[in-house]
Amino acid sequence: MFWRLFFTFARIGMFTIGGGYAMVPLIERDVVNKGWLSKEEFLDIFAIAQSMPGVFAVNIAIFVGYKLKGIPGSILCALGTILPSFLIILLIALFFTQIQENVWVEKIFKALRPAVVALIAVPCITTAKALKLSYKTLLIPIAAALLIWKGGVSPIWIILLAIAGGLIYGLYLKKN
Predict the structure, then answer these.
(1) Where are the alpha helices (DSSP H) in the chain?
(2) Quick one: which of 66, 83, 114, 171 could link to 74 by a disulfide (CB 3.0–4.6 Å)?
(3) What is the mean pLDDT of residues 52-62?
């Protein structure tokens, strides 16, 4: 099972473009479909991994590995997630000047952008459905994304506003 964990996360790390959030549907599919974790356990790990500092996909890999096989499992899953990206970036760095001038590489990355957006949107939608969030609850992240994207508002201001709103709600409004 140890090596299956490593190779599962290495495969996901090797073939996912778009970062940690783009990996979530693939990780979820693999660990839930193989029966390693239930959907609820995965959602718990997803929530914890988001709240931890560090790379999101590595955090999920560490938690999944630890849940299944303890510390050795967490190390193997983390390495499986990190090593493919590291090696690919290392290869790109070796040939960067040749790649940078290639028009086809630029076109490939432009073509991949919509797929990356979809890969990031899928876990957001499935998590919202699993948590049974209402459409009214989804207005807050949508408004924040629009303010950042179209309004040019700094994400720092959005985070500070969210902290203030959470404090006001938790300390004053929720009590009433």
Answers:
(1) 2-15, 20-33, 39-51, 56-94, 96-100, 103-130, 135-149, 155-168
(2) 66
(3) 86
